[in-house]
Amino acid sequence: MAAAAPATGPGLGSGPGEPPEGLEAEAPERRRKAHGMLKLYYGLSEGEAAGRPAGSDPLDPTDLNGAHFDPEVYLDKLRRECPLAQLMDSETDMVRQIRALDSDMQTLVYENYNKFISATDTIRKMKNDFRKMEDEMDRLATNMAVITSFSARISATLQDRHERITKLAGVHALLRKLQFLFELPSRLTTCVERGAYGQAVRYQGRARAVLQQYQHLPSFRAIQDDCQLITARLAQQLRQRFREGGSGAPEQAECVELLLALGEPAEELCEEFLAHARGRLEEELSSLESELGPSPPAPDVLEFTDRGGSGFVGGLCQVAAAYQELFAARGPAGAEKLAVFTRELGGRYFALVERRLAQEQGGSDNSLLVRALDRFHRRLQAPGALLAAAGLAEAATEIVERVARERLGHHLQGLRAAFLGCLTDVRQALAAPRLAGKEGPSLAELLANVASSILSHIKSSLAAVHLFTAKEVSFSNKPYFRGEFCSQGVREGLIVGFIRSMCQTAQSFCDSPGEKGGATPPALLLLLSRLCLDYETATISYILTLTDEQFLVQDQSPVTPVSSLCADARETARRLLTHYVKVQGLVISQMLRKSVETRDWLSTLEPRNVRAVMKRVVEDTTAIDVQVGLLYEEGVRKAQSSDSSKRTFSVYSSSRQQGRYAPSYTPSAPMDTNLLSNIQKLFSERIDVFSPVEFNKVSVLTGIIKISLKTLLECVRLRTFGRFGLQQVQVDCHFLQLYLWRFVADEELVHLLLDEVVASAALRCPDPVPMEPSVVEVICERG
């Protein structure tokens, strides 16, 4: 197979760019060497290159791809083992493989021949370049040898002169120093006259050690004396300039620095430096204090803090930095003196700032105040870090926290005032006369207005105090504003405090003196009860959820649970509604009591119609029903009988009534009548007049009617009735029964109470002759 695969296809002649003609005639060893190089280039192993399956014997003579392949042995094996058809198939397959190998070999030669040619040219060029480089390196070595030789000759020639030049240079430097020393007095004088005090002090500092060392020599001693006189005059001028104090803190610090360099006592300079700094800073404080006076209009708080920050705080920073730079060598004593100085003046500045901030407590907008506090706090961070012992940063933070607490208290008062203002508006709307042809706002509209107004004020207050926790504010990352301010300040102090204050204010209307509830309109009690009930069902949860979302509490201190506030609101609503029932019941009771007490029941005429007060009672009860229905649901009633509106009382229409008021009943047998009445009461259901009121219209009206009818019953028991008086009570009670049964939860309640009224009137009547039920019905229908 290896012998049958020479690449001799067309296009492999001796033309340009083609392999030479003797390529096929190369020795097998050279072919194997080229084949091995190709295998190495393509990264093929010996077995992969030969196409031999893994695990085959490399010495097998029948291995077509092996190195020890023997054609005769392979043919003999095929003839022995394979039939004719398989032999023909093997021949066809072998021819196909030979052609494929020829094509692959031809392609391989075409693809790699240009690469071989390019590699040959590259190697040839590299050989030429390396020859040129070797020549240049040889020339460079020769030149370096010549340079080394010349350098050695020059060094040998100039050795003596170099030593002389070094000595002369040293003498020259010494002469320049001596010249400087001899010219020093005149230089100092010139600098003093020109005001170049810093240059004069530097000259003096350079020459001081030398003059001190050689002061035993007369010439140097004279120079030193002259310099001391000039230096004394210089120090005097610097002190004069320092004491005048017309310049700023940097110039003052420069004077002190020069005086210290001249050897002036540091303790004395320290005292004078702080004294002059105190004077300048007190002028700044006086200027700020004058702006707080009553005569000139005070600048806004932001402008005030800007002036204080740029004037006083900036000056204090300069003083502190200069003091530490100048007197740092004085140790803890000097630092303590500066801390006391800073603490004293800083306290006065803080007092002025608090006075100005107190003037901003009246407004409701916190934006300008928070910006002013932010700048105030920022400006004090630098001196606070520079003078940690003075505690300026901590004091500034305490002021900001105190102002935040005051603002929370102010917003709480604002919410309380807004709530009271809403109640005042409701009072005015309820008391305002109805315009001609126009109805005033209903209770439902008033309730919606009050609820929306209060909620709007709460949201505005939350937005206002939320500015204290904004990320861009420098003090918002303080522990107080990340914890206690959010939980105890905003949630507990502002929101929970307002809700409890609102409940207390609402409950205070239940403590009004007088039978008619004082000056509190009953409609206001009803409205407040519904408002508290709405807060219990939804509003409190919404407000606290909104607060917790806006103020992410990182404080673990206990807070008031929502259930506790809801319970307080529900109890307040219950008390208000109960008080409303009592007030409205007392109003109707007053009418009934006066109508009973002011009438002569013994000499009254035979009834022809229903008394006007009973009509008024029905009208007022109907108005209360409409009023309560605007805010509360209907409620649950017991099943009503079909003849409720036509029923007459059993006390005068049943067999019991006939037995009680039969002709045989005479005043001579009072014990039997009383006994009958007492026996009836034993079997009748006890009526609780002041039972708890539920949050629905039926329960409210039931409570009012029970109070009214119970008052009527007690008033009847205190009067004495004639025959026609009893009949008038009979007519009035039947009229009330015709209309009041529809307002209560159980119509039997009205029947029982009215039965007792008529029965009590009969007991108080010497001649109890009742009116016929048909006549009673006719009178009531006509009335």
UniProtKB/TrEMBL annotation:
GO terms for cellular component: cytosol; EARP complex; GARP complex; membrane; nucleolus. InterPro entries: Cullin_repeat-like_dom_sf, Vps51. Residues 1-30 are annotated as: Disordered. It comes from the Eukaryota. Its main location: Golgi. It is found in: Golgi apparatus, trans-Golgi network; Recycling endosome. Keywords: Coiled coil, Endosome, Golgi apparatus, Lipid transport, Protein transport, Transport. Pfam families: VPS51_Exo84_N. GO terms for biological process: autophagy; brain morphogenesis; endocytic recycling; Golgi organization; Golgi vesicle transport; lysosomal transport; protein targeting; protein transport. Involved in retrograde transport from early and late endosomes to the late Golgi. The GARP complex is required for the maintenance of protein retrieval from endosomes to the TGN, acid hydrolase sorting, lysosome function, endosomal cholesterol traffic and autophagy. Acts as component of the EARP complex that is involved in endocytic recycling. This is Vacuolar protein sorting-associated protein 51 homolog. It comes from Dipodomys ordii. The lineage of its organism: Eukaryota, Metazoa, Chordata, Craniata, Vertebrata.
